[in-house]
Maleylacetoacetate isomerase (Euplotes crassus), 221 residues
Amino acid sequence: MESGGSTEVELFSYWRSSCSYRVRIALNLKGIKYEYKAVNLVKDGGEQKSEDYLKKNPQGFVPALAIDGHTLCESLPICEYLDENHTGDRNLYPTDPFLKYKCRQICEIINSGTQPLQNLAVLKKIKVDFGGDMNEWSKFYITKGLKSVEAVLADTKGKYCIGDEPTVADCFLVPQIYNANRFEVDMTQFPLINEIHENLKELQEFKDAHPDVMPDAPKDS
Ligand SMILES: N[C@@H](CCC(=O)N[C@@H](CS)C(=O)NCC(=O)O)C(=O)O
């Protein structure tokens, strides 16, 4: 990661955004250097809703990735694009079709079955419009999602989600664990996820993508 200077690749990211965290890991695994562009999701109603940023991502979400003359949105197709167009040292997907399916299954459980239910905009709506408890809501849906992931891992896990090489499933799992911890999910019920997490935490590509080391992280995070 480079903060400042100019490189050809720019990642629009927020330190604590799990979707940005996914892409940061993927970029690191592919060995792609990038310039970090902070988008503050909480300042003055959210920089993600500014006219300028909406030109990059019309949904008003981070991440957005400027690369190869394009601006890409949506973390899952971004990871696919990186894998297909930037060969690098590692592949983010297994080559075996069934394991590739399993890898995508884990990603989808997180990408469409878990994170959207605990996204900032949803939580605000639950609290402000419906008077709901956003922490309990998040805890419920993250627990449900991670239970499904834990079940899939029983068939696929090695050191990491799919065997012994990190894949895009790991890029999605680690940020979701980060969110689980934020919302105080009881992680003791997920022994397989915990074992994989311990292994992934050792990898430099994952360390360098952690929210706490991002340029826009508060100093005391
Ligand atoms: N499916 C999108 C979701 C992106 C998303 O939900 N981003 C969140 C941060 S993780 C966001 O920008 N939230 C701002 C908001 O809700 O206003 C992706 O995977 O990139």
Summary: The chain has a mean pLDDT of 94. The chain has two domains: 10-90, 97-205. The first helix runs from residue 18 to 30.
